[in-house]
Structures are given as C-alpha cells and as structure tokens.
Automatic annotation (TrEMBL):
Coiled coil: none annotated. This is E3 ubiquitin-protein ligase mib1. Keywords: ANK repeat, Metal-binding, Zinc, Zinc-finger. Residues 213-248, 260-295, 395-428 form the RING-type domain.
Amino acid sequence: MRVLLSKLSRPWLVDEKKDDGYTALHLAALNSHVEVAELLVIQGKANMDLQNVNLQTALHLAVERQHVQIVRLLVREGCNLNVQDKDGDTPLHEALRHHTLSQLRQLQDMPDVSVSKLVMGLGSQGSDKKSSASIACFLAANGADLTIKNKKGQTPLDLCPDPNLSKALAKCYREKSVEATERVMTSSRSSGAASGGDPAGDASTAAAAAEECMVCSDNKRDVLFQPCGHVCTCASCADRVKKCLICRREVLSHSELEDCIICSDKRASVMFRPCQHMVACHSCATLMKKCVKCRAPVEARVPLAVCCGLEGPDSGGDLSDSDLGATGGAPNNPASAAAAAAAAAAAAANAAAAAAAGPGRMATNAAGAQRPMNNHSDVQKLQQQLQDIKEQTMCPVCLDRLKNMIFLCGHGTCQMCGDRMQECPICRKTVEKRILLYC
C-alpha cells in the first residue's frame, strides 16, 4: 500500500467507491487492517467521512466490528463522530447497541446470574463487553453527541440499560464540554488582552449562552418559532412553549432546524425575510435570490445569532448581503455590528473547540460538522478526469481532432489521419478496413 500511494498519480483514486459504496478505507476498517488504514488516512489523505450505500462511514464499520485500534486512529485524525447511517444511528448508537446485545448474550449463557446484577454491570465481564463499553466512553469523551436521535427516536443513552455506563458516558461528555469551554474562554481572554479590551470576550460569552436552550439549558437551540422568527429552545422543549421567551409573542407554529438544503454539510443558520424560512447555511444563503423552499424573493437575510436574541428583542436584526460576507465591510448600524461581532466570536469558539478535539488535521468532532472540502484536490481530480476523457476521444496522432475512424484491431484515429495510415499507430497491425463513426 505504501508503494501504491507513493506512485499514485491520481490522488483522488483513494476515495473511489465500489458499487456498494465501499472505499479502500471502508474495507480496511471492516477487516481491521490498521497499518493500511493509517497509510490511507495520513499518506493518502483519504476522506474519512465518505458513506457507503447504507450511509455508513469507516467509523461505523470499525465500531460495529469492535476494532479498537481503527476507532482510535479515525478519531485521532479528526473524523466526524456524529454521521448518521440509513437508520439514523451514529457510531455511538452502534457501540451501545453492541454493549447491550453482549449483555443479553451473557444472560442467555449464564442463567444463574440475576438480571439486576447483569444490568447493573456486576456480573462477569467479558472482553467483548469491555471493548464495546470502552469504545462508547472513548467516543463520548471525544465529542460524540449523546442527544442525536435515530429514526426510531432513540438517543444513544436509550440503548444503554446499564446505569453505571450511562453515568460514565454523561461524565465523559460533560468533561469534554467543560474542557472545550475553558479553552474557548482562555483564548477569548488572551485575544481580548492582546487587543487592549474585552468586547470580544463579552461577545464570546454572549454567543455561548445563546447556543443553549433557554428552558432546559442541556441541549442546543434548534427550533424556529413563527411568526416572530426567534430561536430560543431545543426540539424537546418547544412543544411546551406557548409564547416566545425573547419577544413574548404568541407562538403559532415552530419548525426544527435541519441541515442546509443546498450543501447538506452545515446546519441552516440564516433566516430569509419576508418568508421567514431558515433552510440554508451562511455560505449558501449569500448566493440565493429566492427562497428554495417557497420561491419567494429574498429581501433580507438574518443570521442565527440575531434570531437567538443577541441584538435584543426590540432590534429588527435585518442585515444586508455585505453584513453576511465573511470578509465584507462594516455593517450599516451599530446593532448589526454587535451581532456580527457576536457571530464571529461564536464561529471562533466552535473552531477552537473543534481544534481541541484532535492534534493532527483539524478535527470536527465537537461540532459534528463535515471536514472542509479541499478545493485544490477537487480541481486536480476534475482536471485529471478531463484529461482522461480527452485521451479517449481525441485522435492519438494529431491530438487536434476527434476520433471518428476505427480499425478492425479496435484502435482509432480521426478520418484525416486514418486515410493515410497503412499500419495502426497503436498496435502496428496492418489496416485492413476502416470504419467511420457517425455518432
């Protein structure tokens, strides 16, 4: 594998899929080829978040087969821990399901062990059970989300009847969150001291507070209220709220925020006015002139930070296209400037938390987002594919005209070059017959 990767002229072939969607990294993770997987990830720069036909990533397969070394490698190199398969299960779902099934098998094999002792984790523990439990704790400690529900409405903790393991998972998750928060606060204080003031620190604190649900403070805000357009609760608490907690207006309907309808890489974070739909992320929203959901013209774009109330309930919160740009000019009013600063601080906080998750390449475990697309490799891939198409369709003699004459040997040239040929320029066989292509 090392020789193949060193001689590979087309780097994008590392991520090529079979008919079933499996890449080389999928197969290495499935069969526990640790060295091969390490070469593919580090030397071959393989995309660790690609999914097969069942929407499983390499991490799903490694967790399912209990390959601990592969799991450790993928997490260390920054794979996304919260990708869901066709059933909505994350790798943490798989680990805890495997743990529960091992307990049930133990119950069948050892009828003298009481159910209560088994569920409490007091029975004899096999290596299989220890492995699945350790993988689950490892994933939770590195940022796997404990609140994601699969298509059956189950969170990872719903699949874990062991209360001791549930407590351990919650503890690992809290410690990871506290550690990320401390890093963010430290970086905010240092940046504030370097700039000679603390507005950035205040904005970062406000942005962090604006992310958590105003009711339970456990989950992130992910529900958009109508008609006010504010985001202040999580999906679990939204049904209990009759009036918006920010503006006190009556809530007539609410919708849960989903992934961007365009790129599907990030969560929708920009609300369109006047339709008040939030269906696109920051990058895609700046390109839209009409809402992709209702086709209504977009008159204004409101970022998620404003919908969360960072500008205050009395502020309009309308931002122009220039305010949404990543490197645009100054906002049109002071309120917009404050919101932009808070949004930038929130983005910096997320980036700092993600960077803390892995030492090598940028990790995206804490935020659960996809790794940024490598534009250079994508351009290189497209250029190579274009070159392949040219080689297949252009005349190999003059390299100027399309290939439209075929010899009996199977090779071809353009008609102008073929009429002069007595031997095939590829295999040197005598040209007995020339066949023109009219397609």
